[in-house]
Amino acid sequence: MEKERLTYLRPLSGERDEDYLHRLCAEKDRWPxxxxxxxxxxxxxxxxxxxxxxxxxxxxxxxLSTADKIESTQFESLKQKAMDLGPWKKGPFNLFGIExxxxxxxxxxxxxxxxxxxxxxxxxxxxxxxNNGYFMFRALxxxxxxxxxxxxxxxxxHQFNFINHFVKSPKVxxxxxxxxxxxxxxxxxxxxxxxxxxxxxxxxxxxxxxxxEALKPGGTAIIETIxxxxxxxxxxxxxxxxxxxxxxxxxxxxxCLLNWAHKSQFINIEVVxxxxxxxxxxxxxxxxxxxxxxxxxxxxxxxxxxxxxPAPRRMMIKVQxx
Length: 322
Description:
- With 322 residues, the chain is of the alpha/beta class.
- It contains nine helices and 19 strands.
- The chain has a single domain, classed as 3-Layer(aba) Sandwich (Rossmann fold).
- A seven-stranded mixed sheet has the order 10-9-8-12-13-19-16, sandwiched between helices. The protein has a four-stranded mixed sheet with strand order 2-3-5-6.
- The radius of gyration is 20 Å and the shape is globular.
């Protein structure tokens, strides 16, 4: 059984540290037992099977529909189960008419990155810090042949499993792995998405080098981060919190981010986006935490965080492995 655990990785090219990954799976597969595994097993066993369902993964809201009428009691039960899985940070999703209005309008970001990436037809994709899999499902809808998402957060895995219970795709896979585990892959992926992760870790260059190594020769990565304005190649290192977040380390200027990419030996480095984060894209909803971007900014000066630092921008670059 242990050897079968990772057979889904066989379509990937390149090299993998199989011993490392098996040890990692043995550890992470025990995690749900720390959070009342029996309750989650029952939760998913009780999910209904919706007949004649159809996935719509190529539009702003990852959606599922059915030609058959869903009874009102089943609809309300399904909606309650979806709410029980909250808060939902990434979206939007539409589950048979249930609008899951997540904190982030992730479709805004998908539009920016998909325009830069071009066709994903037949490609292998790794989404680092994938949250509930919104971008994974969008990649699948764009023609990706293999999508692996990693995020060491159990609620994210449960939300992904909830959506994929109805999508029923064998092409998307979720693991409770972190960015530090990308080092187990060499020359494996056509595309890597690394969005909203780099500033949460102490070693930005180590992350970028591991990403470069995991890409196939000629492969492409999208690197996206919060950043600060300024022309100098510097990074803010907050004393404690930044925009209310405690686990923030290096917040770069755009030129600093570009230098990180150069130092990590990427080629064909392009700026995809550099804009101030707005409350149109990140906001509180009934499906998400009530605290959002608006609560992280100085109420008297929205260009500053509540700590007095420059307000976060979203910076996105496209890079390539030689």
